[in-house]
Every structure is written in structure tokens, then in C-alpha cells.
Amino acid sequence: MQLLVAVINQEEKLDEILPGLVELGVTGATILPSEGMGRMLSHDIPIFAGLEALAAYSRPRNHTLLSVLHDSKVEAVIALLQDICGDFQQPSTGIVFTVPLSRVVGLAPELGGRP
Fold this sequence. Notes:
4 helices; alpha+beta; single chain
């Protein structure tokens, strides 16, 4: 199993992502509002106050999606995210990565948890 972490820079994309995940059989995810380091620095630390003004765009806050996936679903989920959000290699698109999980407790049986 893998923990998929995806930072989605365009909040409106969640309206497409969540139904797409369900279609792939992913029925559980946690979505957290999040903020990037550059945005935090530009607002909270005076020496970096001009940083946001130098940016070519003003990006809204993003959202971080967390989901425990079977290994077999990881590639399909990443493909879905890139189809909806665009190429993650491009700036300001977002980021996605997975972390292998050695133990998961608390998932419903159909998701790989124990009854």
C-alpha cells in the first residue's frame, strides 16, 4: 500500500478530481487546505514582503489530498491527477508523490483494512 500525497494548486480542480477518484475505486481521501512556503514568507516575514510582488501571478491557497492506495491504483490515480491538473513538471501545477506504507490500521475492510 502507498500513501499518495497531492498538492493541488487549483482548488476548482477538486470538483473533477473527487468523482474521478471514485470512478477509479478510490473511496477515501482527506483534503486539507494548505499554503506554500513562498506565500507564507511573503506575508509573514517582512524581509520577504516583496517576494509575492515579484511573482508573475498571485496563486490562491492550495489543497493537499492524502489517500491510502493499493499499489495497483497508484499509476491510474497519478494519471487522473495529471489529466485534470496538467503536467506536474510545469511550474505552479502542483506536486504528487507516494510513500510506501508498512502498516495501516483503521481502513474499512474493502480498502484493505482488517474486519
